[in-house]
Write a structure and sequence with these properties.
68% helix, 485 residues
Length: 485
Amino acid sequence: MVFSSHIFLFYFLPLVLAAYYALPGRARTALIAVSSYVFYGWANPSWAVIMFFGSSVDYVCGLLLLKMSRLPDVDGLPPVIGPEVVRTRQMKLVLATSIVTNLGLLAAFKYTGFVAENINALGALFGSSTQIVPVLHVVLPVGISFYTFKAMSYAIDVYRGDARPMRRFTDYMCFEAFFPDLVAGPIIRYAAIEEQMRVRQHTLEKFARGVAFFSLGMGKKILLANPMGHIADTAFAGGAKHFYDAWFGLVAYAFQIYFDFSGYSDMAVGLALMLGFVLIQNFDSPYKSRSITEFWRRWHISLSTWLRDYLYIPLGGNRKGPLRTYANLMAVMLLGGLWHGASWNFVIWGGIHGGMLGVERRLGKAHPLRRLPPAVGVAFTFLIVCLSWVFFRAKTLEQAVTYLGSLFGLAAVSPAADVVAGAFHPRYYVGLFALAAVVIFGMPNSWELTRRLSLPRTAFVTATMALATLVMWTQTINPFLYFQF
């Protein structure tokens, strides 16, 4: 089920909200858990079964850690397993069971085919004329990358003593399957939301801000991301093209992925607020960044902080010398790229960002962009990010190379290039492209806009929601880009 669909907007959401506010406290959590499984299993019930299996393992692991700690309850609540408790071999085994189960499910559905294809390619390189390993094309459960990281944070946070485990099964199912952030984030870490699973406030102000977030997210998705997607899809679908058309299509894709993903995050934050939860900010005007380092503090913040706290720091972070720091940065970004998809294109995309992070760390205050006006840094960073998007968007490495050739006028333009370009040059798309640029570089972001809902801002949000709803009727369903991850 997609947020920007009729069934969600006019049936699922009103029913869930009405039932939620009609029920007493604890029953509300159970309602969210059940409705989240309905939401997730709507397109394919088997996906809900897979998620239920993984969630059950994590829940049991949490209970086992609690039992092994031998700590008594505190004020009727399970205790935090603090540093005074020695982590035994059995507790480490329980933690490993949770991590292996989650990563095993992710690997089985997402990377099995990729590994088989590469083994066969390696075999062909050494003269094998037949497939060494059969390539299985498994349907990837939507959002498995997101809820896998979320689930892993539960066992890790409980083991580390960062949060208390959950005793009620419905509470854990609510956390794991929470439909607002289930399929495309933000990736909510357990320690950040544990207390809200038990106690949360419901106020009119919070609900109103949630509606505003959801409305702005709808506007981003329907009014800007989808038209930008038309330009980008047309540009990337054709062969070699004129350099100006290639840049037009690439920047349109940069706009599309921002509005699509940040729009989903806005809607998730808004839905959570309507249900009394407060989620973290996932985007903070990332294209206004003056460096790649700053970009990753503003783009997909929940993923970058997850990778920092659960991977980069355990690897040693910056505590073991410059060379180890660069290696850790590169390892994290390569794995971050692979997290997005089982393709060498995503690995290259991660490598570009990892390399830039290393270069910027090496230069430090001597970075030449620091001595130039801020706008130059913003433009250079946006250029690097756009070039890396080529590998992110292209379906194959060959297509990425061809597209890069078009960007720099190095590819032979195909006879059909002008015909293809005519599909995305109408004034409607050019005008929306200009509007998207103004919104990205010249306007405050959703968090700033909704911080104080004055009358003019309320009118703007209401008009955005009304227009997005009207335009939604004219569009076919366009799943969010990050659903594929």
